[in-house]
User: What shape does this take?
Amino acid sequence: MLDRPSNAASRTSRAALDALAELLGDRLALGYAEREQHGRGESYHAASPPDAVCYPAGTEDVSRIVRVCAAHKVAIVPFGAGTSLEGHVGALNGGVCIDLGRMTRIVALHAEDLDVTVEAGVTRHQLNNHLRETGLFFPVDPGGESTLGGMAATRASGTNAVRYGTMRENVVSLTAVMADGTVIRTASRARKSSAGYDLTRLLVGSEGTLGIITELTVRLYGIPEAQTAAICAFPDAAAAVATVVAMVQCGIPVARVELLDPRTIQAVNRFSGLALAEAPTLFMEFHGSPAGTAEQMGLAEELGRHNGMLSFEAAADADTRNRLWRARHNVHYAIQAMRPNARVWSTDVCVPISNLPRCIADTQADIDAAPFFIATVGHVGDGNFHLGLVIDPDSPAELAEAEALNDRLVRRAIALDGTCTGEHGVGSGKIRFMALEHGAALGVMQAVKSALDPLGIMNPGKVLPA
Ligand SMILES: Cc1cc2nc3c(=O)[nH]c(=O)nc-3n(C[C@H](O)[C@H](O)[C@H](O)COP(=O)(O)OP(=O)(O)OC[C@H]3O[C@@H](n4cnc5c(N)ncnc54)[C@H](O)[C@@H]3O)c2cc1C
Assistant: This one.
């Protein structure tokens, strides 16, 4: 017999916990520290610990756990690495966390078809390490050390999306456990299919509210023959963004183009030991043949010059490039380090690229007036940018200010035909914007949810308003 955890919001009955313990033995955890860590992730939201954490060893295990939860009407929160940023993994009313982090098998590599099938707990670094000798790589690269399952569940992207696409474009097929425990495979490995509804894309971005992804097949790419990077400083953000818009509109196949504002550069210099000029700066990368990358870089430089750029520095050697991109991926922690005991409220929006200059310019006044440090950083080639609001999580005044600023940002983006989140997802943090963004389509989403999860046990309180 197990002692029922003391979480006041608990809805998991003793009978359900006993059944899970019988199924999982010591792969069921009830300790508070472990539950708390699983109820928060990296987001600014307060932790909402689940009543228990399950560690399945494979798809069949997940199916058995879900059947127990369905029989006892217990809420289920899937968990990858907990790097999500919008309160995705909080067990808002108790329930059970299913942590897929121990499911790390590379199931099948089909180098000749440029795809690989992995278990959901494989992280993007683990996958790329595994691929090292093959000449192939997987390009989607969110900053956190996230799992492929979590990335598919949040429809994640990263610095490479402008060239290689997001998880939406790169997931070929999924194995998933549905809310009643049924195991499905959403598609074959064929690159195209016109056969039936696209369940792959329904589950990609569903944040654990429709099913649990246990395996996924993703696309791979050949490592480009040549990769060159450049750092380009501008007198103001408008000039930097105008350069990016021109690059995209001219069809320069840039692989990465990231905007860092002067505050972000200041934080990065301190955290990563760089000495970049504190100016709006583009980090760019070009992939292709040596001649092709040189041509792309020349064109980008010309467009930058046309927009009054201050400096253009190429970084062709691998060490400098890696140092640069490591610094970019550590931006979240660099800005957090600007204020002791602070937490970063990281929010992202995305607009059509031609509306990006206006969206960023209109947001600048808010940033300048804010009483706390705010960093702007963006995957601007996609029209996607982030604000990192460095706040004291114990200050109601700062939280209220951050919420109001975030609200204005999202409404501005939606008014510009954009979205409340380009890549972080909805979680519980952006749920209140779903009606504004989707209108009547929200009702269709709710109908899909009711059909696939009639008991409402799959990650309740996320993505869709009740
Ligand atoms: C420093 C930093 C930088 C980041 N940069 C980016 C970025 O550039 N681009 C970007 O897109 N995101 C970024 N993120 C956010 C985060 O890394 C992504 O959302 C990532 O995809 C989450 O993966 P995870 O494995 O940590 O999932 P988790 O946080 O564990 O879970 C995320 C959501 O998916 C669900 N879920 C997890 N696994 C499964 C599964 N197997 N089946 C069904 N549902 C599941 C969970 O219930 C939850 O709702 C960043 C985060 C940090 C901390």
